[in-house]
Amino acid sequence: MKTRDLIMIVFAVGTLCSACSSDEEVPEIQPQPQEEEEKEQTEATALRPLSIVENESTPFNAAQYAGSLTDDERTVGSGLQDFALRFVRESFSASDNQENIVVSPLSAGILLSSLANGCNGQTLQEICDLLNMKTSDLNTLNSYQRKIATQLDIADDSVCFLSNNALWMQHKLPVYLSFINDSKNFYSTEVEAIDFADQAAGGTINRWCREKTKGLIERIVEDGPMDCVLSMANALYFKAPWTDGFHEEGTKPGTFTNQDGTEKEVQMMHRKDQFFVRYAKAVSFDLAALDFGQYSHKNYSMVFCLPHKGVSLKACLEGLDATAWNEAVSSLSMQNVDLMLPRFEVSQSQQLKPVFQKMGLNAIFDVQQADLSRLSPQPLAVSDIQQNAVLKVNEKGAEAAAVTWAGMTTSDGPGEEPEYIPFHVDRPFFFAIQENQNGNILFMGVVRNL
């Protein structure tokens, strides 16, 4: 291939369901037929021997990157949260304010963080600006991502969180040892050489995708040869039941009013128990949060945000930055809430290149300007970034997957019926699935129509 061949960046975003070890609490994932499994075992591979350029690589001491986050790492984390919310706003805007959306800011941030280690000059500056950090903080960013990956893999048997990264490079493309070591040390990246001209190239990457998303995402590229010299991937897998779920007998038909005013009959889940949900009021929307996992942990939650009547989703999201979001989430408290929530599914396919370009990432996509000189001595540029995602929510929990190319009850005994705050999600809303300790946003999206 010519020296100005493009890199094709692949982001794989993962799954939201019940638990690694059990499928009893969420919608079951249908396994592939046995004959399909046997076929995969015999499918051809395009993998080849690696071609690595030896260069100076900093010795790695794993102990240095263990333990709690430092103040500098927390600052980097705050910048990534700002990136996450801006990423959601731009994705919302790119959908022409008409479609449902679901994206994974966490996965996008991991990929961009890893890629930054191969960049220099204006290209590195633009990635750092996008992630709200200084170029001198790159090692702090790497350390943050390594620690967060460990913290997200929490000791809760009912919750499963997995993060996987992969790098496929053209088998004759020289890649610096320092970039490979940084990818492995900070991001646990699987590094493989591949012949992108081979008929099995796309299938090789798609098999990785199916494996890391437990079969929920079948493919991220077309089968067959690929017009690229390097692909990177991050796959997130999250599977959890509600800490205190809905009762199926409480689910009844209800009406959801779509953004255009039309009405749709949907299956509405319903709970009216005391202190079942955390609730708060923000300036332009109300929010309610349901926790995932065991009562003793509750490291993850799903936050549903319902704009005040007369306030559009667009107006809510336009004024939503990290400060406003954290103020709203931190004000959540256990309340008596009459909660109605539709079962719903959201799916989306989105080209992220124009989204990132609007956010200021431009040089990396231009073969004349891209500077990935810390990745390879050969001139490279990013050609395409695509993200496909799906989210399903029901009485037992939630299940989600995305691929990018690139709830405690208490009772004081009998007495008067308490007053309940109505939180009826019967019109367009937005949501987020987040890790509670550091506020990392795994998934975020908008439901305009059902």
Task: Explain what this protein looks like in three dimensions.
- The chain has 450 residues and is α+β, with helices and mostly antiparallel strands.
- The protein folds into two domains: 8-29 and 43-241 and 345-391, Antithrombin, subunit I, domain 2 (Antithrombin, Chain I, domain 2), CATH 3.30.497.10; 248-343 and 407-447, Alpha-1-antitrypsin, domain 1 (Roll), CATH 2.30.39.
- Helices cover 25% and strands 30% of the residues.
- The protein is built from ten helices and 23 strands.
- It has helices at 34-42, 71-94, 105-116, 121-130, 138-152, 177-187, 201-212, 313-318, 322-330, 353-358, and strands at residues 8-9, 11-13, 16-17, 47-48, 52-53, 101-103, 160-170, 175-176, 189-194, 230-241, 252-257, 263-271, 277-281, 285-292, 300-307, 333-335, 337-342, 344-351, 386-393, 397-405, 421-424, 429-435, 441-447.
- The model is unreliable at 1-19, 21-42 and 407-415 (pLDDT under 50).
